[in-house]
Amino acid sequence: MQKAAAGAVVLLYLLHQDYWFWREARPLVFGFLPIGLFYHAAFTVVSAGVLWLLVALAWPSHLEEEPRGPASGRRG
Amino acid sequence: MIPALVVFAYLGVVLYIGIFAFRTTRQASAEDYFLAGRSLGPAVFLLSLFGTNMTAFSILGASGHAFANGIVTFGLMASSSALVIPVCLFAIGTRLWALGKRNKFMTPVQMFRDRWECRHIGTVIFVVQAVLLVPYIIIAVMGGGTVLQAITNGAVPYWLGGAIVSSVVMAYVFLGGMRGTAWVNALQTTLFLLFGTIAVFVIGAGMGGFAEAMEALLASPETAPLLTRERVSPLYFFSYTFIPLSSIAFPHICIFCLTARNVTYFRKTIVLYPICMLLIWLPSVFLGVLANQGSAVPAIQTKLEARAQLAAPGAPLTPDDRARLRAQAAGDDVILRLVEGYAPTWLAALLGAAVMAAVMASDSQILALSTMFTEDVFAFYQGTARFGAAMQVLTGRVFVIVVTAVAYVIALRIPQSIFDVATQYAFAGYAALVPLLVAALFWKSSTRWGALASTLWTAAAVAAVAAVQTSIPPPPPGSAVVVWAPGGTPIVTRAATGTFVLGLLPVVPMTLISAVLMIVVSLATKRFARPHASTLARYFP
Question: What gap in Å lies between CA B73 and CA B79, rounded to an integer?
Fold first, then answer.
């Protein structure tokens, strides 16, 4: 599941490079949003969804546990 | 003058917040002052972390860039940041939190010094980090000067506006510390989210509707390309995805990662960050593009005419003519001009305050500088032990005043836009420092010498970009000056929009070479520079 979530992040990163809408302004989504701008606005919303998956499936919960052993002086 | 009065009232409000935060923490420790006692709650954490990234860059810079370059601005910065920044918070920020909580780190250099068991190399990292924060402070000065000059129609000149904003920010930072800046950042994010959304619809209605305005832009050969990305190479677009890497390496963000009461606060921040990016950047970019239809506003008409003169083929323009026209065509104040031209006075006033709020987000950077100097230099070299805690605080403030004064002087002279200053210097430099964080947290074999090589490379690379950009004036749009072409192959070129390396933004080779240096030098030095097993056990249990 963790790999699937990470894979979704990588896929989304690749989809950021949207060659297919590069030179197109139409259609104007909702009558005024150029398709290239709409695509990236939608990309941003989908990112939130993918990140929710990442947090739900791959959260580093071990970081919330108290570690064993002594801490260091911070001015090492 | 009403918008100006509202903006000055807002400045008074943030000063009061700083005073209130000061009264709350007067008897408190350094950890309480610099890190709000690691007690920031989830809502304040999200709004203030996002607010600290929502600077003059996101409002004025984004709309100014979109005014000149079109919709590409959103894809260049907003959508890439919406993915890359939260992923970095997830992978790196959470680990920083855990290490900070356990070891009581207050700055990233403290963590680097502990991890690699080094001393003066940590000081080198501090110096480079502090210098790279200066461009961030510069854009705040530029933003403050731009806003106050625009809103008062020149009654407050640019130099005075920049000085006022710098002074107000320093005042509430010095008084309120991290608690004060967190509250102010949360307020400014809320203000802009609320009034920015309203402004988009009001301005659209004033221009006769979004659909009509977009059709008019599409109908003109001069403006139609702004609604596509045909003027931008895919390679250039791809290279911008490296810029958001810088966010996790910014000291103020690292310090923010140390301030959450609980690591679970990162969950909401990671998931909601893209939505916050959308709500801020989409209106800013859209309004910037829309401003190309704003010729009814005299100030915008002047910009459009200057841009047309610059782009006219074969126009006999001297370098001074080009510099003057570039200044006239500059778009950093375009969103304010739109508001002034199309929004009612009450909305213009509130949005002016909201924009001012965003511009003043350099507070976190200023606090980070103060924290870094007092902890990484003054206290580290026994200044606190010798001269006491009061002197520690005083020297931190003096350091910040000096650095801000330097930033102010540069801001008065720099010809570049807010967007370009931020991306080409601060963001590029910090992106190139990300290999330090990744190596410290995830690679056992990294050494202090690898960190030093990476840091020195970053400093040299940013200096080289600055040297190219200040010594070679930008050529006309669509052309490029070859700066370095070994064997006849153009490697480094200077274009109207900046410097390029093999068609990529410098941030790409800077970051990749930084990573290679970290790896190669660490492997070459691991036999004699490997940290003790006990140190490694704390970082890799």
Answer: 9
